[in-house]
Write a structure and sequence with these properties.
Layout: H1 3-25, H2 33-58, H3 62-73
């Protein structure tokens, strides 16, 4: 396993565990009425971050990840194209109304 994948797994686990602990903590800690909605929004965002990592890591097939990695490694520039067109060989263009 490479360093980058380990980092993603760690961040995803921390986000999921932190969000779940926050949700379970709501059963034991009284939250003031004015702070309840922002707290729930923040916990939902944290859970969303963790689920994004899980969806990326485990939601796609190994073949799909290999294809994406191969596409990222392709750094070849497209071949240059030279278009030469003189007045005797013009491309006809018609305007439509």
């Amino acid at each position: 396993m490479n360093e980058r994948a380990t980092f993603r797994y760690t961040i995803g686990a921390v986000a999921i565990v932190g969000g779940l602990l926050g949700f379970f903590g709501l059963y034991f800690v009284e939250v003031p009425e004015g702070n309840r909605e922002p707290l729930l929004l923040a916990l939902g965002l944290v859970m969303g971050w963790g689920s994004t990592v899980i969806g990326y890591e485990f939601g796609s097939s190994p073949a799909g990840r290999k294809a994406a990695d191969a596409g990222l490694r392709t750094t070849e520039a497209p071949a240059p194209v030279v278009v030469t067109n003189d007045d005797t060989n013009a491309i006809p263009v018609e305007q439509t109304k």
